[in-house]
Write a structure and sequence with these properties.
The complex is a heterotrimer of chains A (267), B (275) and C (308). By secondary structure, chain B is α/β, with parallel strands linked by helices. Chain B has ten helices and eleven strands. Chain C is built from twelve helices and no strands. Classes of the chains: A alpha/beta (267), B alpha/beta (275), C mainly alpha (308).
């Protein structure tokens, strides 16, 4: 497809004999925000890691702005595509200061003007300059995730891969980080590929959503379709119902049918 | 049976002086389902652990009263506490992967827990274990009993954990973020299971979570904690009538499928909440 | 008075500068981190005893020519096997040489061997372990099999065989000890690397586009260094004992060099009649190895990343 920032066709990823992703296809336009929703083991994070070059055992075609990608990623790829990890407690080097962590991509890509860029990056994610020389363990979870976002954006990429960026955070912090991601996308015209298990969170940030189950994309819908209930696959219907039930509890406080949700078990 | 706390405080001694993590909270829980909701660092888990006196070593606990069915938890001997822990009060933790013994089959772990509290032969215990697995709605309990923790999915592991806690037939169940590590659909199933079991057996249930809407579904009332204090108590169906700014903030900062917003509300923390 | 208060003020503000929770520069952050470690280490009495003893040992070795009361190799047969006295603080040995002076010079020999072994062993063990662990595959298999071969021999036996094949002496002893000391370090570094390699913060560095060499050198290796330092500090007591053991067996330092093990060997016949003569170097060996052991334990508490 032309004009697509990221185009994935028939992506298959295998772990030994287990086929974790069984032929996933989707395309993301430039400046679009696309979500992959599914439960653990559905293969959503596996796709993200393969796209980021962290897993090389895949088959299929992946094109970045029309150019096919090989198994090995070069440095130029990482200038254009960056990733934010799920766990802000695990994704920052424990023995490096924030300064050092943010400097790393700048050094790798040969940027000049490192001091000024670090200060600007901190400001952009609303972290006080006083945080600059602290260590990750001196920061809260939300502050760490802001650092991780700053690190991803400091080399000025066009595409951001977001691996459940808020699922390890408190809900009030989640709101702040989601707002930050919304603002940054608008300010920089970024393309997002976001993975998550919370339908409401992913739909908040993404215009189109692919629902995954057992290594396959079972349905791709727009956020508007999802809100209006124009969905077909039973898995999508179930996820949507759960999400709506919880939403109802917040506001109306009425009896909802989650208490009658199926209580059957996995085999 | 009731758990009573009056002016419960938990303090940590740090190199920079004492830090109060729980600051004088009071509550009473009978044979009912009560949710304790708050963000990380609000002191909700410490509150639950105080009841079983399972606090980390550096923590100091004080209370005007802290009792479990009339037994003074602060003064009770270690032996008396062991009779409460596991036997009269069960504790379900967030991640079954960390709380189950990796080298023992699921069935044997439940059987061990059953035998410790009730005695009986190995065979009887194993039968009881399979029966308990059936009670937590596992379809093929005999097969699951043979499996080791790494062979269980997250939801299945949590069911095994619940079965283990039910073995001694406790009167009170504390569930500390029992579903935070699980997927949305499994989350609802496990919550529903815990709620049903509590109702059927007439157990008291204390449900600790950061997820206010989820908890309110399954509890009779909800205590909202902020910075070591209970800031609001709500009946489950009345979340919409929350008065405290923090509770309102918690609810309004959630993204919603039915009411999309360009930007989410961000909680403005008032200094007076800390008073 | 004003001087005193000014000095006190300066030390208070330096402390504040070090403990500032939001440091203003890279340098301040690094110093602050080091100072916090030091405060933690200082609270450990046993470790401090170890550190002080080690520092005293090093000072004794460096300043031996100044501290010694006699020439360590000056023979005085008329005054052999003398008990401790004002003239000879620790007595004399079978050739009438001053024991106190020989112990001081012996510290030079022993610590010299320790330094030589550590300088040889630490980089080799670290690099082999980290590279094997990070790169994996056939390189890992190859490096680890080589390591296994060296680990398969008992330490002292391998060292003895090696020294016997060369010629006995300090250099051979150092090489022999080094040969037996690097494999555990490589194993340790590899094990650390395996856990670090899969962590998200290393994945995050990979995603920045950093090269393999850069990831190993700048991100993985610094995390392995603390545990290697701890392991070496604990191993040094073993190195001291092996060096003394080789000396005792005549395979290490040769007489008349004042090496502690050799000193025991040449005077062991007097253990019943003049017990202090072989005992004093023995006590020196004991104190030195114990001091390094205590120091290593203390360092582990401060440096081990798992304790955070």
């Amino acid at each position: 497809m032309a004009g697509m920032m990221l185009d994935v066709e028939d992506l298959r990823i295998r772990f030994g004999t287990l086929e974790a992703v069984r032929g996933a296809s989707f395309a993301i336009a430039e400046g679009e925000s696309f979500g992959l929703v599914g439960e653990s083991g559905s293969g959503k994070s596996t796709i993200l890691r393969a796209l980021a070059g962290l897993n090389r055992d895949w088959d299929g075609t992946v094109r970045l702005a029309g150019e096919p990608l090989g198994r090995l990623r070069d440095r130029a790829f990482f200038r254009r595509v960056q990733m934010v990890f799920q766990d802000p407690y695990g994704s920052l080097h424990p023995r490096q200061t924030i300064d050092r962590i943010l400097a790393e991509p700048l050094i790798v890509h040969g940027f000049g003007d490192i001091d000024a860029r670090i200060c600007r990056a901190l400001e952009e994610v609303s972290l006080p300059a006083a945080m600059r020389f602290r260590y990750p363990h001196q920061l809260s979870g939300g502050q760490r995730q802001r650092v991780a976002i700053a690190r991803a954006l400091i080399s000025e990429p066009e595409v951001l891969l977001l691996d459940e960026p808020t699922s390890a955070l408190d809900v009030s912090v989640q709101a702040e980080v989601l707002n930050l991601l919304t603002d940054l996308r608008r300010a920089r015209g970024l393309t997002y590929l976001m993975v998550g298990h919370n339908l409401a969170v992913v739909t908040h940030l993404c215009e189109r959503i692919a629902v995954m189950s057992h290594g396959e994309i079972v349905e791709t819908v727009t956020a508007e379709d999802l809100r209006q209930g124009r969905v077909q696959h039973p898995h999508t219907v179930e996820l949507r119902a759960l999400s709506l039930d919880l939403a109802e509890a917040q506001g109306q406080g009425g009896e909802s049918d989650l208490s009658q949700a199926r209580t059957g078990t996995a085999p | 049976m009731s758990v009573v706390a009056r002016n419960l405080c938990v303090t940590f001694d740090t190199p920079h002086g004492p830090v109060e993590a729980v600051r004088g909270i009071s509550f009473q829980i009978g044979r009912e389902k009560v949710g304790i909701v708050g963000e990380s660092g609000s002191g909700k888990s410490l509150t639950a652990r105080s009841i079983l006196r399972l606090l980390p070593g550096q923590a100091r606990m004080t209370a005007d009263e802290l009792s479990f069915d009339g037994i003074d938890v602060a003064q009770a001997s270690e032996r008396a506490m062991r009779r409460i822990r596991g036997k009269r009060a069960g504790l379900i933790l967030q991640d079954p992967k960390h709380s189950l013994n990796p080298v023992m089959s699921a069935g044997r772990q439940i059987a061990e827990s059953w035998r410790v509290h009730r005695g009986g032969s190995r065979r009887e215990a194993m039968e009881a274990a399979v029966d308990l697995l059936a009670q937590v709605q596992i379809r093929n309990p005999a097969q699951v009993a043979e499996r080791y923790p790494h062979e269980l999915s997250g939801g299945m592991g949590q069911r095994v954990m619940i079965a283990m806690m039910l073995a001694p037939d406790p009167e009170f169940l504390i569930a500390d973020e029992p579903t935070s590590a699980l997927d949305a659909t499994v989350q609802a199933e496990i919550m529903r299971l815990i709620e049903e079991l509590a109702s059927e057996r007439g157990m008291g249930l204390m449900l600790i979570s950061h997820d206010l809407p989820l908890v309110s579904h399954f509890c009779d009332r909800v205590l909202v904690m902020y910075a070591g204090q209970i800031v609001e108590e709500l009946k489950a169906g009345e979340l919409g009538r929350a008065r405290h700014g923090y509770t309102q903030g918690l609810l309004s900062c959630l993204p919603s499928l039915s009411h999309p917003r360009e930007r989410l509300n961000v909680m403005q923390r008032e200094a007076e909440w800390l008073a | 008075m004003t001087d005193v208060s000014r000095a006190a003020h300066a030390s208070v503000s330096r402390r504040q500068w070090l403990l500032d929770p939001s440091p203003g520069s890279r340098r301040q952050a690094a110093w602050g981190n080091a100072y916090r470690r030091w405060l933690q280490f200082r609270a450990n009495t046993l470790a401090m005893i170890g550190l002080v003893t080690v520092v005293l040992l090093i000072a004794a070795a460096i300043f031996a020519p100044l501290l010694a009361t006699h020439d360590p190799s000056a023979i005085a047969l008329e005054n052999r096997l003398a008990p401790p006295s004002a003239a000879h603080w620790l007595g004399t040995d079978d050739l009438g040489r001053d024991l106190y002076s020989r112990i001081l010079y012996g510290a030079q020999v022993t610590l010299g061997m320790v330094v030589a072994v550590v300088v040889l062993v630490a980089p080799v063990g670290l690099v082999i372990g980290v590279v094997a662990g990070y790169v994996g595959g056939w390189l890992d298999t190859l490096l680890m099999r080589v390591t296994d071969v060296f680990m398969a021999f008992p330490k002292l036996v391998l060292a003895l065989a090696f020294v016997a094949a060369l010629q006995p002496g300090v250099t051979s002893a150092v090489i022999a000890i080094a040969l037996t000391a690097w494999p555990p370090l490589a194993r340790l570094a590899r094990a650390e690397t395996l856990t670090i390699r899969e962590s998200d913060f290393i994945n995050a560095v990979r995603v920045t586009g950093a090269s393999k060499g850069r990831i190993i050198m700048r991100h993985v290796m610094p995390l392995c260094v603390p545990s290697i330092i701890v392991r070496i500090a604990l191993d040094i007591s073993g190195i001291i004992l092996t060096a003394a053991g080789l000396g005792f067996l005549g395979m290490g330092a040769q007489p008349p060099m004042p090496e502690w093990g050799t000193m025991i060997a040449t005077t062991s016949g007097f253990i019943l009649s003049q017990w202090w003569v072989p005992t004093i170097p023995g006590v020196a060996i004991l104190l030195a190895s114990l001091a390094f052991n205590l120091l290593g334990d203390g360092l582990r508490d401060v440096l081990d990343p798992r304790q955070e």
